[in-house]
Design goal:
The protein has 189 residues and is α/β, with parallel strands linked by helices. Helices cover 28% and strands 20% of the residues. It is built from 6 helices and 9 strands. A 9-stranded mixed beta sheet has the order 7-1-2-6-3-5-4-8-9, sandwiched between helices. A hairpin with a 5-residue loop joins strand 8 and strand 9. The N and C termini lie far apart (32 Å).
Length: 189
């Protein structure tokens, strides 16, 4: 399958503030333009999720991350650059993102996916993507496309036709942050 064509087909939806259902390096996710507050509000509405619960964003590189995090922690950058498992880091000092996406303490959860499709999509879009599990809040996260509920599938504007036949069980990313001693701490392994 042509990953460039598949990712290009998602771009008009993202550019118009729509929602996509897409495979990541972890589980299937609901995505949108992470710089569009109206699109982000649609994600919260579809998931029945409280807006005070933050969402993860995906970037394709440290360079893109630095456009949305002021003075990112070198310890966190080093950890995610060498992590063997998909790892999301919570960075302080989010910038250039809508307030609806930023946690009350000014932080943002960011991951650089290890997935060719996601990287190509972000590179073509030239902005970060929201990535949140493709489930209604409180329900189990789908481990593959077949486990995504009909409500989620019908609630998005575009379903990416990639890896839908993959029935392997995927898990969410690990989540890390710096504790008060400036040490990397796991929130989720």
């Amino acid at each position: 399958m042509d990953l460039i064509k598949i990712s290009k087909d998602a771009l008009p939806v993202l550019n118009q503030g729509g929602l996509i259902l897409y495979p990541t390096d972890t589980i299937w996710g609901i995505g949108c333009d992470a710089t569009n507050s109206d699109a982000i509000k649609k994600v919260y509405a579809l998931k029945n999720r409280e807006e005070k619960k933050s969402l993860i964003i995906l970037v394709d590189s440290i360079a893109l991350l630095e456009k949305y995090v002021d003075n990112p922690s070198p310890e966190l950058l080093s950890f995610i650059a060498t992590a063997q498992k998909p790892t999301t880091a919570i960075f302080k000092n989010a910038i250039n993102l809508p307030s609806v996406l930023i946690n009350e303490d000014g932080s943002i959860a960011v991951r650089i996916p290890n997935d060719d499709f996601c990287i190509r999509l972000i590179q073509q879009f030239e902005k970060p993507l929201v990535s949140t599990s493709a489930n209604i809040s409180g329900e189990p996260s789908p481990q593959n496309f077949n486990e995504v509920s009909g409500k989620i599938k019908s609630g998005v504007d575009y379903i990416v036709p990639h890896r839908q036949d993959d029935i392997s069980k995927k898990l969410p990313s690990a989540i890390i942050k710096l504790n008060d001693k400036q040490e990397v701490e796991f929130i989720r392994r």
